[in-house]
Description:
The chain is α+β, with helices and mostly antiparallel strands. 37% of the residues lie in helices and 13% in strands. It contains 19 helices and 14 strands. Helix 3 (64-75) packs across helix 5, helix 9 packs across helix 17 and helix 11 packs parallel to helix 14. It is globular, with a radius of gyration of 23 Å. This is Cytochrome c domain-containing protein.
Amino acid sequence: MRKVSLARMIFNGFVSISLPFTALAAEPPSCPRADGKLTADALKTVVITQKDHSTVFDGDRFSLSLTLQSILATAFTPKTGSPIPVEQQKALASSHTEQLALLTSLIRSFRNLDRSSNGVTNNATFRLHEAELEPEALLASMKPVGLFNRFDLAPANWSYCGEHRVVYAMGTGTNRMFLIFEAAVDNPDPTNAEIGCQRIAEFWGGLQSKPEGELPDALRSFYYDGELGDGKPPITPVLHNQHFGVPFGQVRGNLFLTQPEGPGVIPWMLREWRTFPSAQSVTTLVPDTVKSNPNPELYNDDPINLAGNGRDQGFVDLRAEFQDKFVVSHVRELIDVDLEAALQGRKPTGDELFNQLSAAFDDKFNDFESVSQGSADVVRGSSSLISRIDHELMKYKLPTGWTLTPEHILARAEALSCAGCHNLTQGKEIAPQADIKWPNALAFTHINEKAELSEALVNSFLPARCDNLQRFLRRTEPTVALSEPSSEVRTPALAKTRLSVTTFENAITDAETSTALSELASDIQTARQQDSVTAGAFRRFRRTH
C-alpha cells in the first residue's frame, strides 16, 4: 500500500480542499523583512535583478543569444543516416542563423494577424513597429534585467515545478519592448509529486546564504545545464525547448514600440507565444492566447464589430456562454479568499487578496492580446451581468460588515488579466475597505530597463512568494495510506504530448510529418486547456503574475 502526502490527497479530491502551503492570516511571515520589505538575502530566493546582482549577467551569461541557442539545441534531434556528425548537426541547428530565424518567427506574428481559438476567429491587431524589427538588431538590443523564481505557479498535481523566468528589455521612454521567457520546468521525479520538486525549491532557498561571488555560476548552471549544486544528477535545464510550450510554459511580450506616432496612437500591449516545431525548423515561436485574459468585450453588451478582427458569429456566441459561466463559476472563485476568511471569523487582508485572487477562466474565452493602455480592455459589465453578479453574491455568507459589489468582482477579474495587473486595475478598490486597492505597477511593467521593481512586487507579490517557498521547504506533512496506488503526476495529456513529439521526430515522409504536427498541436492544446483549470499548489487557480 503506497503512502502519499495529505496535500496530494487534498488535490485529488479525497479530502475537502485546503491549500497546504498557504498560511492562515494568523501565521507569521516565513521570510525576514526590514521595513515591511524582504531583506536583501531573502529577496534572492525569489528574484535576481541586474541592478542588485550585476555580475550574474556579466558578459553573455544570460544573453538572449545564449538563451535562444539553448532552446534550439534542446529542440534538436539528430538525423539518422546523415553524413554530418551529430555534434556538428546540433551546432548548426542552434547557430546564429537559426537564432535569427527563431526571432523572425516571432516578428512575423506582428503582421500575420490570423488567429483562432477552439475554432473561433479573433484576429490580432497589426503592430507596425514590432513588425518592422530586424532580428539581428533585436538580438543585439535585448538585455537581461532579471531572473524570477515562480515556484508558486506549480500545479496541484506537481507535473511541473512552477515557472522560472528570464526577463529581457530594450528601449526607453515611449519606445520600449520586453520579452519574458517563462519556463515551466518538468518535475524531475514525477512519481513523487511535490517531493519531486523539492530539489528545485532547495536550490532557490539556498541562494539566501550563498555568497555573491558564487551566484553567477550557480544560476547559469541551473538555467542552462540543469545543475542544482547538490551533488546529484542534473535535471532538465530550465531553458529547454519543451519548457516553453511543449506543452507548458510560454514566452510573453510587453510591447510599446510607438515612434514616431507616439503612445496615444499605438497602445501598450502584451502578447504570448509558445515554441512549436515545423517541417523546416527544429522550433518556432507561434502566437498563443494570453492566459487569464478573457476578451473584455465578453463582459458587456456593446455591439461587436465582426469585420474589425475577422470575427464571425462564433465569437458573438461566446458572450452569452461566458457571462453565464462567469456568474455560475467565476464569481464564487473570485470571492474564495473572502469566504475562507469568513469561516475564520475575520475579514481578508489586502495581501491575501492581492496574492490569492484567482479564477479558472476557460482558454476559449482568452484574447490573443491584452491592451494595457486606454479604455479598450477595461472590464465593463453589461447591466444584465451586473444585476446577475449582485444576485449571485447574495447567496454567500461573507465576513460581517463586508459587502462586496459587482464592481469589486469585475475589478478583481480585470486585475487577473495582464493589462489589469500592469496598469488598468492599479488603484482600484477590490474590497469594501478604502485601503484595499490593487497595488501599483511600474509604468506598465513590474521590472523596467533599469532592473527596478514595481511597488506591487516589492510590497506584496515577492514577500508572499518567498513565504510560500519557505513554508514548502520546512513543511511537516502527515502521510496517509490510500487503498489504491496513486498515479504518476505526469498527466495523460502531458504524456501524450511528449509521445507526439517523438512521433514527429521519427517522421520520415512529408505526409508523416504533416500528420505528426497536426496531432502534436491538438495534444498541446488539450494539455494546456486542462492545465489552465487545474488547481494550484499555492492558490486555488494560478495566474501569470
